[in-house]
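ARCHIVE CARD
Drawer: 12
Card no.: 0347
Subject: one protein chain, sequence and derived structure
Cross-reference: see card 0346
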Amino acid sequence: MSASSRTAHRGVRAGLGLGLLALLAGCASAPRRAPESYGGYREPAGGAGGRYAQAQDGGPGAPPIDVNAIPEPVPKVEPRSRFGNAPTYTVNGRTYHVLASAAGYDERGIASWYGNKFQGYLTSSLEPYDMYKFTAASKVLPLPSYARVTNLANGRSVIVRVNDRGPFVANRIIDLSYAAAVKIGIWAQGTGLVEVQGIDPRRPQDLPAPPAVAARGAAPVLYLQIGAFAERANAERVAARLRQAGFDDVHVTAAVVHGRRVLRVRLGPLSGVAEADRLGPRVQALGLPEPQVAVDTSQ
């Protein structure tokens, strides 16, 4: 797991325990904290502050577990958690909007994972984290909910129960438990290119088939997308600005998104997650919007 991903995400997650006793004593009458809070807990001003016994995260220190012996969660209708489901919340100056349902959610991007540093500590839904279960953290999916996560490099999938918030790091869309990371094969690398498909527990049969990337032999290709424009002049203007700033491999390509023809401005293909993390802040320094990770499996 990348050190930057662990540090930024965990510093925020650490706030869950700092106000726990006070909240449990007065949660019925206390006003909702907003907008700088999430999950019902105020983000700590000074970071983790020693909440966790371990300074660094990682696996259990032994060879990967036999994930085939761990049952995948069976999606079922559950009441929403009292904690972690505020309609909107803000972390590190960025506001997130929690979805009403996982149904229809389908996103490609970068997954990370978290492990023994957080074993037994409370998640955003106030459930103990168990790295030997197939669970995950999401910034936008409701708690709890279910999703299928597929490694776009090898086609391996796992069903996870989403019961935590995060990862609050640029370019990451989901934080997997250690067991889930081993299951789909991103444990050793720390991150992986994945597709996350939300599951409607009322109609699990409606979930589309996982992307058959392994069967097609298509290796995923990573880009940073700067924007999608209806007018070519606007797209070319942004592309020219990137080229003038010294960026290589700037492309303007046509695509149809939700029935509309757009022109996408992208950087890439990139060598991997580290390059995406490095280039993102450079793009924003030009005054452009935060670029979004785009994963293409068509090549």
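Annotation on reverse: Helices lie at 3-13, 15-18, 20-26, 178-184, 213-216, 232-244, 273-285. Residues 3-12, 14-49 have pLDDT under 50 and may be disordered.
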